[in-house]
Every structure is written in structure tokens, then in C-alpha cells.
Amino acid sequence: MTIERPTTTQLLDLASRLHIQLTDAQAEEYLAMMQANFDAYDQIDALPDEIPAVHYARDAGYRPNAEENPLNAWYYKTEVKGAKAGKLSGRSVALKDNVALAGVPMMNGSSTLEGFVPSFDATIVTRMLDEGVTILGKATCEHFCLSGGSHTSDPAPVHNPHRYGYAAGGSSSGSAALVASGEVDLAIACDQGGSIRIPSSFCGVYGLKPTFGLVPYTGIMPIENTFDHVGPVSRNVRDNALLLEVLAGDDGLDPRQYAVKKDDYLSYLDRGVKGLKIGIVREGFELPNMDSRVAETVRHAAAEFEKLGAIVEEISLPEHYLAGALWSPIGCEGLTAQMMHGNGMGFNWKGQYDIRLMDKHKDWRKQADKLSPTLKICMFVGQYGIEQYGGKYYAKAQNIARRARAAYDQKLTEYDLLLMPTVLIVAQPLPDQDASITEYISKAFEMIGNTAAQDITGHPAMSVPCGVVDGLPVGMMLIGRYFAEGTIYQAAAAFESAVDWHHR
Asked: Which residues pair with 160 in a beta bridge?
């Protein structure tokens, strides 16, 4: 098969878009010289793609009806059984619907991607199946993962299992809702601005965003290579640590991974917190929309650590605000360049590209009006920054991000863990279908004030359920040093053993 060659008219148009002016004669001369390059394209086109082998039998599954899916937390149900024995034998898991499961549809919350079926399994899928897990399907997620609320997924919102009609959190909305409702033991979630921790907080489960790069993102649709994270959601700390042991480690295909340090996370669970130093980050309690009842609940939980023998002190970390602000240029310009203009994969990195995903996702341009308001506003900001300023604010924000990380690192030389509320509020009512653009977007981003910062700095952070306000769960966030997930689990397990958060 040969690729289609451009005509002279097409080359003239293309050159014009590159701000290059050609005469017809020049265009014809360039076209003649370009043929050798296109011959190389023909050669590549004729070769089979290089994709990972798929193991373990499965079928495409089905999309459950409303009776079987009352929270709208499932996108697709199926059953893929892993090895007969392993660390996860007897456990069930749901995959966030941006994670590739070969042969099973993947929509990533957007009707523009509907109909796409992955051809290979994500690295973490293979790792879980090799350890005996049973995959029960794909969990609904928010529209291209760009919402901390759960009202942006096509075609309908995900409901909170604690109160129907309220947000489950996002963007891993279905993942947290399915674990909290007991439909699965475990779930995979992803986090670019808080999307593991926000729904975990709203739904009252344990959600860990690992250190940047600890868990390979290969086979998962990205938003932006520099802050994509994937991690475990569970109903207890032990299961969370067990799943991370299976997920973690270099796969040689993900550019996010370098100098990865995997640990024996289960060995931390019974150590207690006596002597641990925990810094309560003042800035994490002082954002404008902080619910004072949430703040009080988290401070009360922090005091439990003191009773358990930890040293708990209030500290100031002004760079927490800075890290949150850095998300806008990095996130908006980065996702516009990679996820949208780059058709999901982007350019300039070595690893496993999903060619079929790129082929499908490129057609967003033909149906861009269907994109969610949350994605549109990020694209508007990102495209403006790219066109008007040549991407310099993206670049400057990436440079300054090192300063924000260094400030976190410095505090984490003085303290073993940092502590703050995961989310500033409890789950809120889902907006009406006819909500204004302003309400739709506000309800998607009103809760990310504390969580976005650690996606920029890359530090591991976990939402630990610690109480209720008006019958809805509250999450306490524990933040650790790079690759110190074990210390987070150590503290979370001690708290879990000592405190029944359901009755606080």
C-alpha cells in the first residue's frame, strides 16, 4: 500500500500554514524532491506494527443497562480471568476507561472516541492478570479525564454511592464508586490534577497517586506526559499496598519512568507511627472555598496520629500555592499539544505508541463541538498560550516546577509526611443537564485546590477516609517523599486500625 501524495495545490496550502510562500514552480520542485521521503513512508506502512502480545482469553463484553448499572459507574462489563495463582488471586478489579484492555471498547468518557477498541493490554493490565486478578470491566470516567466532578462523562453522570444525585468525584469517578459500593475489590485510577484522590475522598475509599513514574503509564491514554500518574483504589490499606506491589516498576516503554525505586509496601503496614514526624500544611486549610467542617474533621484526624505516638506539628509551605498555579500553563498548553493536536500520543518520546488510538482520536476535529466545556476551556487557554506566546509560559512553568518540588522536598527532610485535606469540600449535588457553562465548569474544578500541586511536584499522595460531614465522606491527604509510598501506607494503616471513620 502507498500513502497518498500531496498535490501541488495541497503543498502550497500546507506551506502557507507554515508561513512559507512558494511559487507553483517551487512547489513542483519540492514535490519531486519529497518523493524519496514518501517512499520511506510506504515502506513503514507495509510493515506490521510493533505491539505487545495479548494473553488471557476475553470477549468484548457488553454495556450494562440502567438496572444493572444504577450509579452509571460501569462503561463496559466483561470478565477476564488471570493466572490461576498469584498475589491478586481471588480479587476483582475495574479499570478506568482510559486504560487499554485488548478487545474491549474504550471511550475515555467521550462520545468522540466511542467505537474504539484497543489492540493490546496496558502494562499494568498484564501485570495484574499475571498475578491472578479477575478484571470485571471498564469503569466510567470523565470526558477525557478533565473533571474533578462526575457530571462530564458521556452520556450520563456518575452518582455517589453514599448519596444518589451527588458527585462521585472525578475523573476516576466510576473507579471509586465501584469500589465504595462493593462491586469490585479494587480499581485502577489515573491522576493528573487529583483524579485518583478526589473521587476516593468523595466516595470514602483509599486512593494513592504514586510517585511520578513509579507505575508505568504504557497503554493508558495520556493527558500530558509530565504529570500523568496511575495508581490503586481500594476499601482498605492492605489491598492498596498489595496492588501497588503488583503495579510498580519499570517496563522499558514509558518515558515517564527513570530511576524507579520499588519497595515491599506490605512490610510497612504493622510498624505503627510512633516517632514519625507529620507536618500539617497550613496552606492546605486556607484556600477560599475551604469548608470549615472538612477542615475541622481533618485536624481532628491529625490529632489521632499524636495519640498514636507521632510528632505532629503545623508548618507553612507557601510553594503549595505555587505548585497549584503551575498546573494551568503546564496542563492547558500541554494537553492541547499532546492529547489534542498530538492525537493522544504526541511526539518526541521513545516507547509504546498506540497507533490505532491515534487513528481514532484524530477525528475529534470533525466533531469538536461534542467536546465537553471542561476540555474546551482548557484548549482555549492552551491554544492561546501556544499561539500568542509561543509556549514560553509552559516552558517557564516547567522550570519553576523544580522550585516547587524543592520546597516540598525540603519540608520532607524535616518531616516524614505532610498532611492536609484531600478535597476542600464534601461531595456536592450534580448540576442539572441544562446547567450554564459557568456552573458546569465550576462544578468540575472547584475541588482541585489541594490535589493538583502534587501532580506538578510528582510526590506520592494518598487520600485516607477520616470522617463524615453531613453523612458524606471526608478525605485526609498524606504526602510523602519520592518513592516513600511505604511510609504513607505505614501511617494510613495505623490510622485505619485505630479509627472508625464512618462514625466520626
From this structure: 163
